[in-house]
Amino acid sequence: MIDRDTILGKLEAYDPEKIKIGVLASHSALDVCDGAVEEGFRTLAVCQEGRDSAYTKYFKAYREKDGRLRRGIVDETLMLKKFKDATSQKVVDRLLKENVLFVPNRSFTSYCGVDSVENDFTVPLVGSRNLLRCEDRGGEKDYYWVLEQAGMPSPRKVKRPEDIDALTIVKLHHKQKKLERGFFTASTPEEYWEKARKLIADGVIEEESLGEARMEEYIIGPVFNLDFFYSPLEEKGSRIELLGIDWRFESSLDGFVRLPAEQQLALNDKQRIPEMTVCGHNSSTMRESLLDGAFELAEKFV
User: Looking at beta carbons, which pairs linking 193-199 to residues 24 or more positions away fall under 8 Å?
Assistant: First the structure.
């Protein structure tokens, strides 16, 4: 892990009047850039060739001579052959020269690897470098470990397929799309093996991945993603803010559930088991009577 003094040394060399907000051009990069320009910062998106048009063209920032933003949100782009090169020394040197504060989204740690972010990427981050590893499901101190340490509720873990006695969700990676989900559900051990064999045959999951899968009881109910922000710099108000609430669009699950039951049952074998690949989000609200409980969970997490 890069030590704190190393990062503080990099920050001391920065020009406070020329700070830029940097981000890997994927995942939630446009949200980051939108917020950054709203706060008066210039932005730099690290792009992969062939996946850059949204940042280099359609959301490119255009400013007046006095610096006022006329349209767009991405001031500069840094083009790479592959995202994984973002932690290379050449890129690090460029970002340090540009006085970049880097916002690490999930794509950054997925493409570059947490080890590289922790040990090689000496660019100052917005947020805690120590927390990034907890996003890797299955690691020694992943988010399930954090929930347990914080005394927060989580779905009952199912240790073995033969222990399945209620609707259970099986969480593992997709075989072809390594950064996506190959999740499936089962209510009995027999259904588990039937679906697992089918998904292996279809090339959706790998047999070896089943041993590393996280299985847990499926909680039936609405799903809310609570977007909290914590700032240790806040001196007056609460350090925890609820910035928004959303829920996910998942393909092909969302199309599947829009069909009447009779049509679902009529689907052919390849269509019958839906995939759960996140392809978008929609904003939501929550009953205000539930917010006290939401903030209580946020306080426990912190």
Answer: 193/161, 195/273, 196/170, 198/269, 198/273, 199/273
Q: Exposed, middle or buried, 2 (CB in 10 Å: 0-12/13-18/19+)?
A: middle
Cα(216)–Cα(43) distance, integer angstroms:
40
Q: What is the pTM of this model?
A: 0.91
The 276-283 sheet, strands edge to edge: 225-230, 240-252, 276-283
CA distances from 183 to 117, 206, 214, 268, 278 (A): 27, 12, 10, 19, 11
pLDDT per residue as tens digits for the range 232-284: 999 999 999 999 999 999 988 999 999 999 999 999 988 888 888 889 999 99
Asked whether 178 and 84 are in contact (CB, 8 A), the reply is no
CA-closest candidate to residue 181, choices 83, 252, 256, 260? 252
Parallel/antiparallel/unpaired status of strands 20-24 and 42-48:
parallel
| Measured distance CA(248)–CA(50) in Å, rounded | 26
Picking from 156, 112, 157, the residue whose alpha carbon sits closest to that of residue 135 is 112
Q: What value does the mean pLDDT take over residues 176-184?
A: 81
Q: Are 144 and 154 in contact (CB under 8 A)?
A: yes
Which of 200, 205, 183, 154 lies closest to 277, judged by CA?
183
pLDDT score at 38:
97
- φ, ψ dihedrals at 100, nearest 5°: -90, 130
Does 219 have pLDDT greater than 80? yes
Count helices and strands (H / E) in the chain. Answer: 13, 12
Q: Which domains does the chain have, with CATH numbers?
A: 4-135 (3.40.50.20), 225-301 (3.30.470.20)
Helix (H) or strand (E) holding 45, with range, is strand 42-48
Residues 144-164: b if buried by 16+ CB within 10 A, e if exposed = bebbeeeeeeeeeebeebeeb
